[in-house]
C-alpha cells in the first residue's frame, strides 16, 4: 500500500499537496521540515514514498534529507521538488524524480504513480 | 604635474579612506599626543600625504592642519622607508623642499613610521618632530611603528563600517523592490483568475477564491509597510473586522503583538475563513449573533505562548460539519500552519482556540 511522506515548510503548499494525494485515495503523512520527517520515518515503517521540497529551515535541506533517507531506508522512493533550478545529478541520490514548483496536480500524481 | 600610475593608485587608495580635510577626531588626537609624550618632542603628527600637500589628521605642537609640499619628490622621500629617522634635517637633502624645515619654524628632527595599506600603498606617516636635533630609543621607535599600525586599523575599520552601511542600504532598496513585485504578482493572479473563471457558473466558488486572494493581499500590504519584517496583530485584525464585522458584531481585544511574516499571512487567512464561515453558517448569519475575538500571551509555561480565542454566540444551532472543506483545513492549520487548534461546537456557537509559541509567531 502506498504511503507518501510530504515534506514542505510552506503550510498552504503542503496542504495542497496532501489534499491532491488524498483525493487520489493515497495515504499522506505531512512534515514541515527534515528533522520532523526523520522523526516520522524512525517511528513509522509503512512509508513508501518521500516527497520533499529542497529549501527548508532546520538542520537539513531537502537534498541532504534525500541522501539520508536513501542510506537509512533504501526501499523508500524519492521525489524532490524545488522552485529553483534542477540540481546537478551528483547533488541528488541516483534514481530520484525531480519536479519543478509550482506543482500541477497532473505532474505530481504522475510522479507518485511512477515512484 | 606628471603623475605616474603608481602614484595615482596611491592617491586613490588614500581617497578611499575619506579622511582628507575631515575634522579632528579623538581617536587620532590621542595617538599624536601619546607619540609626542613618549618621544619627548614638542610636535607629533598623524600625517596624510596627498597630491602636493600634506594634511594633518591630528597634530600637537604645530597649530596648522595642512602644508603644501613643493614637489612630489619630497613626498616620495618621506614615504620611501617604513621607518625614517632623521636626527638633523638641515643636513638631509631630502628635506630641502619641506617649508617646515627650510622656513619658519625651522624644524631639525624628524622620525616617522609609515601608514601603509594592505596593498602596499604608503598614504602617510605617524611622525614626531623637534626644533633641535634628536635621537630615539628602540622603545620610542617601536612605539611609533605600533601607533602607525593602529592608525591604519582605525582607517580600515571605518572604511569597512561605511561599506557595510552602504551594503545594508542597497539591501533595503532591493527588499522594497521585491516586496512591490510580490504585490504585483498577487494582483496578476487575481486578474488571471477573474478572467479565466468568467464562464464558471458557480459564482460562489469564484467569489470565495477572490476573497481569499484579497485576504492574502491585505496581509502582504501590512508586511510591506514594515519592509516585510513584521506586522502588528492589530493591523491584521482591523481589515478583517472592517470587511466582515463593520457593524460592530465582531469584538476584538488583546495586546498588540508583532508578528513575523509567516504568522501574518497564516493568521490573516485563518481569520478570514473564520469570519466567512461565521457569516455563511455561524453566528453572523443571524442579526442577533456576534463574535468575541480575544488573545493574550500566556507566560505560565516553559515559554510564552500566544493564545487566540474565537467565540461565536447568539447564532443558529450549529454542529461540526461532516465534510472537510478547504476552509476548515485552513483553520485547522492554526496560527502558523502547524496546528495547535481546538474547536468546539457548542449549541451556542463555535468556539475555536489557537495556540503557538510567541517565539515562533514572531520569527522573522
Chain-wise SSE layout:
The complex is a heterodimer of chains A (115) and B (364).
Chain A (H helix, E strand, L loop, with lengths): L2 E5 L3 H13 L3 E5 L2 H10 L5 E5 L8 H11 L4 E6 L14 E4 L4 H10 L1
Parallel strand pairs in A: 1-2, 1-3, 3-4, 4-5
Chain B lengths: L4 H11 L10 H14 L3 E8 L2 E8 L5 E3 L3 H9 L2 E4 L12 H4 L6 E8 L5 E9 L7 H59 L6 H23 L5 E2 H12 L5 E4 L4 E2 L1 H20 L9 E9 L6 E9 L12 H8 L7 E6 L2 E9 H5 L2
Parallel strand pairs in B: 8-10
Antiparallel strand pairs in B: 1-2, 1-6, 2-3, 4-5, 5-6, 7-9, 10-11, 11-13, 12-13
Helix pairs in contact in B: 2-5, 5-6, 6-7, 6-8, 7-8, 8-9
Describe the structure.
The complex is a heterodimer of chains A (115) and B (364). Chain A has a single domain, classed as 3-Layer(aba) Sandwich (Rossmann fold). Helix content of chain A is 38%, strand content 22%. Chain A has four helices and five strands; from the N terminus they run βαβαβαββα. Chain A has helices spanning 11-23, 34-43, 62-72, 105-114; strands spanning 3-7, 27-31, 49-53, 77-82, 97-100. Chain A is globular and about 30 Å long. The model of chain A has no long low-confidence stretch (mean pLDDT 92). Chain B is an alpha+beta fold and 364 residues long. The longest helix of chain B has 59 residues, at 138-196. Chain B is elongated and about 110 Å long. The mean pLDDT of chain B is 88. Classes of the chains: A alpha/beta (115), B alpha+beta (364). At the A-B interface, helix 1 of A face helix 9 of B.
Name its key features.
heterodimer, A: 115 residues, alpha/beta, Rossmann fold, 4 helices, 22% strand, globular, B: Beta-Lactamase, Heat Shock Protein 90
Q: Name the helix and strand elements of chain A from N-terminus to C-terminus, one letter apiece.
A: EHEHEHEEH
End-to-end Cα distance of chain A, whole Å, is 13 Å
DSSP helix fraction of chain A = 25-40%
Number of domains of chain B: 2
Mean pLDDT of chain B: 88
Q: Stretches of chain A where pLDDT falls below 50 for ≥5 residues?
A: none
Element string of chain B (H = helix, E = strand): HHEEEHEHEEHHEHEEHEEHEEH
Total helices of chain B: the number is 10
What radius of gyration of chain A results from the CA coordinates? 13 Å
